[in-house]
Design a protein that fits this description.
181 residues, alpha+beta, Aminopeptidase, 8-stranded mixed sheet, 8 strands, 31% strand, globular, binds coenzyme A
């Protein structure tokens, strides 16, 4: 029997270096995107008010590594060394589900596409992973495009699926994407 799926604690794509998130990453995350209402618009949380909000989130996220239930990584530009954002694969049985967020200055350069392609390939290469998936708000075409670029197909609309508190109090319809083998 093969070992459970895990992500490497550090890895590189052509342009980015990624490593396991640490609670100490709170400051760059807080400074670069956690307080930016444009970045959090289609996310499941409101902009952070204080560094303590970011630290509290990271305490929980970082602990997922030890449980083997999630593998949040932070990304850096290999050339400049600058902080770029975070990718968050979660293991749910035979599935890996993804979230991702980049600071605004990193948008539109193909970063999410490049890293998601790497992550999707890495997950589906594991014998116990049959499906990778992600969802986004129906009004978020940039994220939908990232999933398509990563080789996923749109399966449909999950109606009233997720609460995006920066858009409305009522849960929103979302596109669900996947790649299977
Ligand atoms: C969504 C996000 C991760 C995209 O990251 P990115 O590195 O800029 O994405 P990429 O450059 O790899 O690809 C973006 C794609 O969306 C397309 N795109 C961007 N804005 C678009 C828009 N308004 N309408 C349609 N397509 C759009 C780009 O053209 C590109 O597609 P292409 O490669 O076919 O040209 C980034 O904008 C982000 O972090 N947003 C805030 C957090 C967030 O919303 N996360 C996702 C939650 S589901």
């Amino acid at each position: 029997m093969s070992a459970n799926y895990r992500l490497q604690e550090e890895f590189e794509t052509a342009r980015y270096y990624l490593r396991r998130v640490k609670v100490d990453d709170a400051q760059p995350i807080f400074d670069s995107y956690a307080t930016d209402a444009e970045v959090t618009r289609f996310l499941g949380w409101k902009p952070h008010q204080s560094l303590a909000d970011t630290s509290a989130f990271l305490e929980i996220a970082a602990a997922e590594w030890d449980l083997g239930s999630g593998f949040p990584v932070v990304a850096f530009d290999r050339k400049s060394g600058g902080f770029v954002g975070m990718f968050h694969p979660k293991l749910i049985g035979h599935r890996v589900s993804y979230g991702y967020v980049l600071q605004r200055s990193a948008w539109g350069k193909g970063c999410a596409t490049e890293v998601m392609r790497w992550l999707v390939e890495q997950a589906l290469a594991h014998p116990m992973i049959y499906r990778v998936e992600a969802f986004c708000d129906v009004d978020h075409p940039a994220s939908a495009r990232v999933m398509e670029n990563a080789g996923m197909e749109r399966e449909g609309i999950l109606r009233r699926y997720f609460h995006h508190p920066n858009i409305s109090e009522a849960p929103r319809d979302c596109f669900i994407y996947s790649k299977v083998h």
